Amino acid sequence: xFEIYQNGAKVNLMTRITIWILMLLGGGALGVWxxxxxxxxxxxxxxxxxxxxxIGIFVIRxxxxxxxxxxxxxxxxxxxxxxxxxxxxxxVTGGFYACMRHPMHFGLLLFPPAFAFLIGSVSFILFIxxxxxxxxxxxxxxxxxxxxxxxxxxxxxxxxxxxxxxxxRWVCLKELFGKK
Length: 180
Description:
By secondary structure, this protein is mainly α.
């Protein structure tokens, strides 16, 4: 299985996937439980579920586009020489990465609300997904950024001083979520 180096230690890709699954399934289960206790009428409303599901489909498509677009860009621009799949050895600062330092993570930030809308949980949408999004941002600050500094040194520090973590500029969002 693929391994990613962070903080000088190997972080197995399966560990990351497990964390995502626990967040989504745990958030979903807690959201449904809270809905059944706090807002049962919303949870049992088929019209709410129909609209919520459609919103979820739309948002999950944005997540997939961002992941596909940034993944392809990293594979093309972030690799020099013969290195293992899904690893980079070159700091990428062009394309999506000229707008924001973490465009893939920005897309993935939308995954918890997308899942919340898909299952139609008001509690997940309003309370749990925002908490999970905050956890993702904290993980970027605590794990991803220090790892990038160790990997790319002063080049990454300079890049960090010039480019925001995320950007809501229309031109950036259009490029990130656009069809390629």
